[in-house]
Automatic annotation (TrEMBL):
GO terms for biological process: carbohydrate metabolic process. InterPro entries: 6-hairpin_glycosidase_sf (IPR008928), 6hp_glycosidase-like_sf (IPR012341), Gal_mutarotase_sf_dom (IPR011013), GH65_N (IPR037018), GH94_catalytic (IPR033432), GH94_Enzymes (IPR052047), Glyco_hydrolase_94_b-supersand (IPR010383). Residues 16-293 form the Glycosyl hydrolase 94 supersandwich domain. This is Cellobiose phosphorylase. It comes from Mesotoga prima MesG1.Ag.4.2. GO terms for molecular function: carbohydrate binding; glycosyltransferase activity. Keywords: Glycosyltransferase, Transferase.
Amino acid sequence: MRLFESKYGYFTPDGREYVIVDPRTPRPWVNVISNGDYSMIASHTGSGYSWRGNAGQNRITRSYQDLIKDSWGKYYYIRDRESGRFWSAGWKPVMAQYSLYEVVHGMGYTIYRHRVEDIYSEMKVFVSAKAPVELAEITLKNEGATSRRLDITSYFEWVLGNFPDEHREFHKLFIVPAFRDNAIFVRKYLGQFPDGKGRWNNTDWNQIAFHGASEPVKSYTCDKESFIGMYGTQERPAALFEDELTGKCDRFGDPCAALQVEMVLVPGQSKSVVFTTGTAIIGEEDPEELLKSHSSVGASRRLFSELKAMWDGLLEAEKVETPDPGLNIMTNYWSKYQAISGRLWGKSGYYQVSAGYGFRDQLQDSQIFLVADPGLMRKQILLHAQHQFREGDVFHWWFTIGGGGPRTGCSDDLLWLPFITSQYVRETLDYGILDEELSFVDGGSATLYEHCRLAIEKSFKRFSPRGLPLIGEHDWNDGMNAVGSDWKGESVWLAQFMYLLLERFLPLSTKRGDGVFADRCRDVMQSLKDAVNEYAWDGEWFIRATKDDGGKIGSKENEEGKIFLNAQTWAVISDITDSERKAIAMDSVGRILLKDFGALLLYPAFTKPAPDIGYITRYAPGLRENGGVYTHAAAWAVWAFALMKDAASAYKAYSGICPPNRSVDIDRYMAEPYVTCGNSDGPVSPMYGRGGWSWYTGSAQWLHKVAVSWILGIRVEDGFMEIDPVIPPHWKGFKYTRKFKETVYEIEVRNPENLSHSVATVTVDGKGGGPKISIVNDGKTHKVVAILGRSKD
């Protein structure tokens, strides 16, 4: 059964794969494939690029950001040597007439199926689970009645360092290719960093790149001009009008990699070849050995099995079965895969290339590991703590290669460390993490607990006379970058966030005997609560912030940007206000901000630049944060509505941002229906509902979290699991399975009375209990049944 089928494609019945049947999708639909070290992007057209470490500092192959043309990649040409006709394994670059074209995006791989002139080709591309190597296994089958003499030719261009390499004429001078042992090896005698004496352009790139084939190479070239031809194109390269490639391989041209292998196929015969591309760190890894261990069909199939097993381990530790197939698909597979492969490991996408980790970004993303491998979340927390300064502030982001980054006055960055740490400890009970001794950027070290406390204490020093946190250079919304330049403007959202953070961090301080700090946190919580309710309530919602001059943002007084989403949702999430104001604020969200495609970040959109607010006002109205649906915040709206037990609004807010649901109007949405977008256009945009900035977005993890924790209502805290669903009343129930170390809990929720919430009874292995279940790790499988029912009071 095909799920969420549109004219461009569909999900397979289990939801693990998305099959594209028409290459003319509204935008490139890609797969970000990574093992945490080496990564690649595979577009549905066959385009894309590769990198190691990060895509900004260590790009391996060339590409340019152009979502209209999508015309850069690692291409594989198939040619009939008798007729001279050629096409490509992917649709690009040749775009030949075909009788079949399908692309399958899966967990860690992409498969291209193509049939041209009775030749069926299947190209499977993936990255080894454990090595800095990508593989393209190409199988050709002769489905005709006569023998065919064919060749397959690879082609791509090298970068080998910082990207973009805009001064190409300079960078190409340092790239030195060589052909030996059936492969191309490449050095670059120009590194990305200065030498030990601070001199730039005086080091080597620290790796050797390679490109090889499992079959004997018939001919090759390392020279772009000899392949493309002067004024030529990738669609019709000059080399494919010649019998062989030129064999030119020196350091005096524009470097590329092209290998040509030959196949003769009798009718019905199939043959396969594997092309490998990768890098080896000089002095640490052996490029010849990497090639040898990856360059065979047998190795390719063994490595592919290992890859699938790796992703099974990360994805199958948790499973949901609900009446909503879109929620099932995203929660079971694609949200987790996107957060891990795209955000945490690959750190890149077609809409945005990153050269590092955002301090708050990947901390939040790391929550995706809580079920499958909490140790990976632990590792991420410890990594981020080491990018803090002794004063408690942090890098806004940092380069993952070479280190360094902007030490900014962003007011919320530093607080995500104690927030995520407390979340990790609450769920795993790993109090030992707090004793880990970790360095500061500017020298010295302290325990993780002290790192977290320093972040909080630093923020305590950034309060206005009214008791509200100062917004500084900006808070969560980077686009509000002019609100508090003079350190006078206030952030109401930050006050709400800090209130919840302190509530969650308090138990850690108390458990460690740090009573003085715990008392200080309680005092600040009360001060924040008083200030928010006294100064930030605008009658029907909370204002978002105040400017340096005291002017309000997100108020009825404003002509534009009258109401902001986060100040309402976090009033509920943080529990900083009373039930009446929560209800009024969320009613305003429902009336004004909640639309068919999720909750708008603000309303109405800014139509003219406001230099005292920031670049958010300079976006076109309805785009991204300026009156669009910003998916990260829209997921928080689901959380808030669920806390209010407003199942209808929670489900509407979720359904609007759940990508498979957009298959019904896919030409409006344009983006991939299998991963979240960073945003979709708001109603004032002529492209209302258009998705953008897919893959590299923190919304993937949050979409998963709100689905499990707040719609299904399965939450783990302090050794207990709570079952507190907020679901559509027409759901007759759902199932949820989760591993806890060696133990499995199989949960079934039944809804015989068509309710949206309120658990009446819970049994564990047939024995009665409460809505909170004590978790035991006994290596067994436990069956839990929860039944929704009306109170008997």
